[in-house]
Amino acid sequence: MTTKAELVTAIAEKAGINKNQAKDALEAFIDTVTTSLKSGSDVRLVGFGTFKAVTRAAGTARNPRTGETVERPASKTARFQVGEGLKTTLNG
């Protein structure tokens, strides 16, 4: 697993910028993706993948510990669909 701090360091090294600039760039990316998903827009990075906002319908769920059935409210979440370029790299 890579932490945010490790990601900032890697970005700084690969882009030839300092860590503060890399941290600002990463935070700007995260904020922009979050804002787009919140407004219902997908974020598509060709060759990498697509972040999609999805709505999960309300329903019933079962607590695995107690077996108790509970009502689950509708909620929004995000999904990531892997792009062909990333998929090829991972399987190559």
Describe the 3D structure.
The protein is of the alpha+beta class. It has a single domain, classed as IHF-like DNA-binding proteins (HU Protein, Chain A). It is built from 3 helices and 5 strands. The protein has helices at 4-15, 19-38, 84-91, and strands at residues 43-45, 49-56, 59-62, 69-72, 75-82. The strands form 2 sheets. The protein has a 3-stranded antiparallel beta sheet. The chain has a two-stranded antiparallel sheet with strand order 3-4. Strand 3 (59-62) and strand 4 form a beta hairpin.
List the helices and strands and how they pair.
Blueprint: H1 4-15, H2 19-38, E1 43-45, E2 49-56, E3 59-62, E4 69-72, E5 75-82, H3 84-91
Antiparallel strand pairs: 1-2, 2-5, 3-4
Helix pairs in contact: 1-2
Keywords: DNA condensation, DNA-binding
GO biological process, one term: chromosome condensation
GO molecular function, one term: structural constituent of chromatin
Assign a percent range to the helix content.
40-55%
Largest sheet: 3 strands, antiparallel
- Classified by CATH, the class is Few Secondary Structures
Q: How far is the N terminus from the C terminus?
A: 20 Å
Radius of gyration: 18 Å
Class inferred from helices and paired strands: alpha+beta
State the helix count.
Answer: 3
The global form is elongated
Extended strand count: 5
Order of strands, widest sheet: 1-2-5
DSSP strand (E) fraction? 25-35%
Overall tally of domains: 1
Could you tell me the CATH topology label.
HU Protein, Chain A
Stretches with pLDDT under 50, minimum 5 residues: none
Superfamily (CATH H level) name: IHF-like DNA-binding proteins
